[in-house]
Specification:
Number of helices: 25
Largest sheet: none
CATH topology: Growth Hormone, Chain: A
CATH architecture: Up-down Bundle
Number of strands: 0
Helix content: over 70%
Radius of gyration: 24 Å
CATH class: Mainly Alpha
Order of helices and strands: HHHHHHHHHHHHHHHHHHHHHHHHH
């Protein structure tokens, strides 16, 4: 069946001759490159990016639904009866901070990241060999299987097996979707289109919270089953939609498809007849990538030092903001400070509404305001709110008493302000920046390292938070606030601005950086893409 987003023949496999001289459309130090590309937002690009971005629904829905079901009495009674009994105790023997402390409960929450971590590296082989859309399709199918198994779970083995399958789906989707968006989007609008992934993450979270609120009251003991099983719907949207997606020009060239076919597709997605400048850069980048046989070994070379550091640091810091403390455990956190079951779920819905709204705002201004500025605004605001939450909880909550109504309201407002700051900054930009800064020859490997680090840190944070809350109490928020301060300084000193830079010319940004320039410039990388000029006629014909 022909794809409605463009005709992509599978029959031609002609590749450019290695003897042809590939010349780039500009010099490598020309960072104001976007005007040289003739591009605009076409319906093809918009529909393709929005369809691919629905991959964020998987991550968002699971995050939201997990936090909800772990606070449902029926779910706790069936799988975690000890915790349920502890919650029902009227005695003063269990601290407010320790009622939910359970290794098994955190294992349920965090297990998804174990399989997601492994799957992201498997996806790093599938994505370059078979294309971005193939990885997206695998992610959707695996997530459907995990959702069905989780909703039908009768014992802990079935429940955890479903979680592991969900992790495989998220691992493939999170590895391939941001790459797809960055490669399909025109440089001028790459930030906005890429952030649509995080918009869908936040939206999926909100939908899950609303479903949790509905099922906990309307479905009784079956509420948690409906919440878990409903995850099949966003996964089916992604899996079916992936069938009709066009492949990115970068992937087609890298996999040896006919150059005329790629040029035709590029004209469709850019809405312009003259795409030779961009095509020349894509072909040059593909030739460099083709020479790299072991990208995971290559990324350890000195010339790729900034890319390796960022592939680890950005997802590490994104999780050390403590956002998963809020998204996964928001209902539990709200019950800790005195809210009932239903009230905690309702309060949690606002987290998604605020996060989605602020992510949408970031989407609108990121290509104007710039990545660094938004990182700084978000970092400072998150630091202030984290410290304030910890201070109020230390002064008002205590181990066995109940906080005043006024203090719980202030804590709630501060949590919302924190979520707004994350949704505006580190939430969307963590995925955007880590998908746009890598050269093609290491892009899939670097993205896998980034996603793998994200999953690993999500597992660590998810597995340790309840134990940390029990032992450090309110100081837990000071701990995460300290990391927010560190990451804000890191961005200020080490992350260059990348707005409006073509993805295949990002190397020029690192060469001009005061710290990273000596690594990239001394790397000895001989790139034919750094020559000025145009792609030669024989390559196109």
């Amino acid at each position: 069946m022909p794809a409605p987003f463009g005709d992509i023949s599978c029959s031609s496999l002609r590749t450019p001759s290695p003897n042809l001289k590939i010349k780039s459309s500009m010099a490598a130090d020309d960072t104001d490159a976007a005007p040289r590309y003739h591009t605009r937002i076409t319906c093809l690009v918009l529909l393709s990016c929005l369809m691919a971005a629905t991959g964020g629904l998987l991550f968002g829905y699971d995050t939201g639904v997990t936090g909800g079901v772990t606070s449902m009495d029926a779910f706790l009674k069936k799988f975690f009866p000890t915790i349920y009994a502890r919650m029902e105790e009227e005695s003063d023997t269990t601290s407010n901070y320790c009622k939910f402390d359970s290794f098994l409960l955190t294992s349920f929450t965090a297990s998804i990241y174990v399989s997601g971590f492994v799957a992201s590296f498997v996806a790093s082989r599938v994505t370059p060999m078979y294309g971005r859309k193939a990885s997206i399709l695998v992610g959707g199918i695996a997530f459907v299987a995990g959702a069905v198994l989780g909703g039908a779970a009768e014992n802990m083995f079935m429940l955890l097996s479903g979680r592991l399958l969900l992790g495989v789906g998220i691992g493939f989707a999170n590895q391939s979707v941001p790459l797809y968006l960055s490669e399909m989007a025109p440089p001028k609008y790459r930030g906005a289109l890429n952030i649509s992934f995080q918009v869908f993450v936040s939206f999926g979270c909100g939908v899950a919270f609303l479903i949790n609120c509905a099922t906990v009251t309307a479905a009784g003991d079956w509420g948690w089953r409906i919440s878990l099983a409903t995850a099949t719907f966003p996964a089916l949207i992604l899996a079916v939609g992936a069938i009709f997606l066009p492949e990115t020009p970068n992937s087609l060239i890298h996999r040896g498809r006919d150059i005329d076919e790629v040029e035709t597709l590029l004209r469709k997605i850019r809405g312009a007849d003259d795409v030779r400048a961009e095509l020349s850069d894509l072909v040059a980048a593909s030739r460099n990538a083709a020479a790299v046989k072991r990208p995971f070994k290559r990324i350890l070379e000195r010339r790729y030092r900034p890319h390796l550091v960022m592939s680890v640091a950005i997802p590490f810091f994104q999780q050390m903001t403590g956002i998963n403390v809020i998204t996964f455990y928001a209902p539990i956190l709200f019950r800790t400070i005195g809210y009932g079951e239903s009230a905690a779920l309702v309060a949690t819905v606002m987290i998604s509404v605020i996060g989605t709204s602020m992510t949408a705002l970031s989407c609108l201004i990121v290509d104007r305001l710039g990545r660094r500025t938004i990182f700084h605004i978000g970092g400072i605001t998150m630091l202030v709110t984290q410290v304030a939450i910890g201070a109020i909880m230390a002064a008002e909550l205590g181990d066995y008493g109940e906080p005043s109504r006024g203090s719980t309201t202030v804590i709630l407002v501060l949590i919302y302000a924190y979520v707004a700051s994350f949704g505006f900054s580190w939430g969307p930009l963590g995925w955007l920046v880590s998908s746009e800064i890598y050269p093609l020859e290491i892009r899939s490997a670097a993205q896998s390292i980034s996603v793998g680090t994200n999953f690993f840190m999500s597992f660590v944070v998810g597995q340790t938070f309840l134990a940390m809350l029990c032992r450090l109490k309110a100081a837990t928020f000071f701990f995460y606030g300290g990391w927010v301060a560190v990451m804000t300084v890191f961005v200020w000193q080490l992350l260059p601005e990348t707005k409006n830079i073509p993805i295949e010319k990002m190397n020029a940004v690192w060469k001009k950086h005061s710290v990273w320039g000596r690594f990239v410039n001394d790397g000895g990388c001989e790139e034919s893409s750094e020559e000025d000029g145009r792609i030669e006629e024989p390559l196109l014909r």
